[in-house]
From TrEMBL:
One Pfam family per UniProt: MoaE
Organism, as annotated: Loigolactobacillus jiayinensis
Top-level taxon of origin: Bacteria
Regions crossing the membrane: none
InterPro entries: MoaE_sf, Mopterin_biosynth_MoaE
Protein name (record): Molybdenum cofactor biosynthesis protein MoaE
Amino acid sequence: MHYVAIAAQPLDVNALYEKLKAPQFGGIVTFIGTVRQWTDDVETTSLDYTAYTEMAVKELTKLAVEVEAKGANVIIVHRVGHLELTDEAVFVGVAAAHRGEAFKWCEYLIDTVKKQVPIWKKEYDTDKIRWGGPNDVQR
């Protein structure tokens, strides 16, 4: 059974991983996105994440149900609020019968979350504030 959430508190990645374990699954793949300091030549000091929470949970649930229909277990949790360098921003986990499926679906999920789930990032960089990343809107 899937678990999705938008979290205002730090992610307990060990507890989330434990939710994926089950006897029928031989492969568990997780992706944990953290706040990084450098993106090319842009230095980030911290981030703020915001979300349209109701819609974000609805979209995360649709993604999880889609992958679960293929025989996997899915967990997707994304942080909101202020995050410092190295803080965990997102956890995506997939448990499947075999590792190949788990890898494929985990990558699909994080890529799709970034493209279509209403979660926005405000980057505090050493030179300016950016919305979404170094190539997006600058203030």
